[in-house]
Amino acid sequence: MDFKSSDAGVWREALSSYESTIESIGKPNLIPLDDFYRNELPNLLHKRNPNPYITTDELSKLMQWKLARGKWRPRLLSFVSSLDDAVVRNASGKAFASLPDVSKAVSELTVLKGVGPATASAVLAAYAPDVAPFMSDEAMVAVVGDSKDYSLKRYLVFAEKIQIKAKELSSPEDIFTPSDVERALWSSTIGAKVKSSSTKSDDVVSEKKPKRKRK
Predict the structure, then answer these.
(1) Among 8, 47, 109, 137, which is least packed, fewest CB within 10 Å?
(2) Is the pLDDT of residue 5 over 80?
């Protein structure tokens, strides 16, 4: 899907296929982790208003989700899982309180070992999907052309473009959040890869089938 597209119907279709795409990539552990990230975690965070925070256990589970949906980096999970809970609660509390200043919010979270701008963006997106999109590889490539630079500066460029796109696609009847835009891009990109891989597998099987001799 082209990021420049302003066809809300195309975007909504890509977003609606998100769950089936999650199931299609063959990572059984990702299904419950994604449910936790999109449904359970936001509820937990908002129940803690007016002073929301994330715990170390929740951050560790979020990291498992991030690595399962993207590239596996076990050291990051190890770093995050060993963080002091009081420190995580304090840093995340300051981050949430900083919103809608995304730059300050990310900076408050990246003091934690193992938490870079991408992980920080996932934390913020769980709490405020209408403000901060997750910085996934697939969305980065679609929006800014590559996924090589995961600095705060790059994230701010990425987030602004996603925010603008969300407003462009939204109507009074159908609201798109920045997180919706990110998920649609991820679903479209991964869905196309899964379909391409399946087609290639079918071609290989077809080539291996022995040709029947004519009688």
Answers:
(1) 47
(2) yes
DSSP letter at 6 equals -
Confidence of residue 147 (pLDDT cuts 50, 70, 90): confident
Q: Nearest-CA neighbor of 116 among 167, 168, 80? A: 80
Q: Nearest CA to 52 among 104, 103, 105? A: 105
Length of the chain: 215
Measure the CA–CA gap between 207 and 215, rounded to whole angstroms: 21
Q: What is the DSSP letter of 214?
A: P
In 3D space, the residue among 183, 175, 214, 208 whose CA is nearest the CA of residue 20 turns out to be 183
DSSP conformational letter for 175? -
Contact 188, 14 (CB under 8 A): yes
Place of tokens 């679903």: 187
Asked whether the predicted pLDDT for residue 210 surpasses 90, the reply is: no
Residues 117, 76: Cα–Cα separation, whole Å:
13
**Could you tell me the sign of the dihedral formed by the alpha carbons of 192, 146, 186, 80, in that order?**
positive
